[in-house]
Predict the structure.
Amino acid sequence: MSTLDTVKLTSAQIAWRAAQDIEDGAYVNLGIGFPEMVARFQVAGRRAIYHTENGLLDFGQAPAAGQEDWDLINAGKRAVTLNPGASFFHHADSFAMVRGGHLDVAILGAYQVAQSGDLANWSTGPGGVPAVGGAMDLVHGAKRVAVITEHTTKKGEPKLVEHCTLPLTGVACVTRVYTSLAVIDIDAGRFVLREKLAALSLDDLQSLTGAPLHIDTPLQDLNVPEL
Amino acid sequence: MDKTRDSLAAAVADIRDGMTVMIGGFGGAGSPIELIHALIDHGARDLTVINNNAGTGHAGLAALIEQGRVRKMICSFPRSANAEVFNAAYLAGQIELELVPQGTLAERIRAGGAGIPAFYTPTGYGTDLAKGKPQHDFDGRMYVLERWLKADIALIKAEEADQHGNLTYRMAARNFAPLMAMAAAHTIVQASRIVPLGAINPEHVITPGIFVNAVVAVPNPAQEEVLTREQVVYP
């Protein structure tokens, strides 16, 4: 599929699409790394409040170089700033917000997502130094758990699969996946295709997906601006 | 009653080989660098250390590990940027690791401080980190039984402290510190400022002094990120 690289969304475009579904007033946790990019595309006129595991609600952009305060960081250990209305709290309160179901949305990266909603995003298997952070808590706490990811691995293997082969982060937890090719919901143990790039045929998309794609509603084009 | 101590060395004098030590901080924010360095100077070994991470660079917690004082780490995210010291020790089989999801780590510590020996959480259900742990259905959903975590010692970085050990923290440096202060038999605090009794508005006390045993003043404390960037090696 040599044309895939020319039609697929950039990381910024995937993040933009995910940002369109964040409502005004939502409390949101963005996973470290790629998901943090979603905050850049907050829809005009909406104000989301971002939570970070290390005890801070309503943080803003990174400070200018040289202006970092290393007591003011996010879960990715990057320096951030405070928005008016920010608050600090200890780690047990922070994870009460998570596990207690108080967050509206968590957006995470993925190695694999299964049609059951199982997520694998913390370990590529034995070897190396393992690390889990807050991912296993986040997937069982937020009201909506979404994933943003490339549709396939760098080798072209499907990341959306029948069953995860990598160690699980959580069972039946993901409800929507934003990929470089499509927007797919997980409903009753099935991948339900909601939007796909117009340049890509359904057969091509299915061939890049490791489990059947179902269509319950009229299929929409995945339209994202150049960014 | 006066919990203040004259020196870092005096504050850590009672730490013994083989103890379990909780160390506050998330990354560098809240890491009590001066207390950790005092612990290195003191010489205690065979320690079990509980922290969210496992240190960066060659100062603070990374230095404690590099000096071979830590037998076991209990943490959620050892694999940070610049965590070469832990990584090398772990891959060489020189240090044990108990990996705990971050919210479960926080709640286990809180439970330890609150006298709650175990609790059920959805976190980790169906994953490798729940293997061997009891599980139970509540209202149609599965949960994993997790045990409390307690410690002999907690090392904490605070912003303000008074003679009774009432504490405030600075921004996101708070993180695990209030929980660890509760969960340790003996909590040792370094504070940027020691203020007179009554100077901290009781409405603003974050850790009440009942959870604190010793306080030592460390004005202008070091920051792990800066030490790592400047490639500082301790000792």
In short: Chain B has seven helices and eleven strands. The two ends of chain B are 34 Å apart (CA to CA). The longest helix of chain B spans residues 102-114. The domain at 8-118+150-229 of chain B is CATH 3.40.1080.10 (Glutaconate Coenzyme A-transferase).
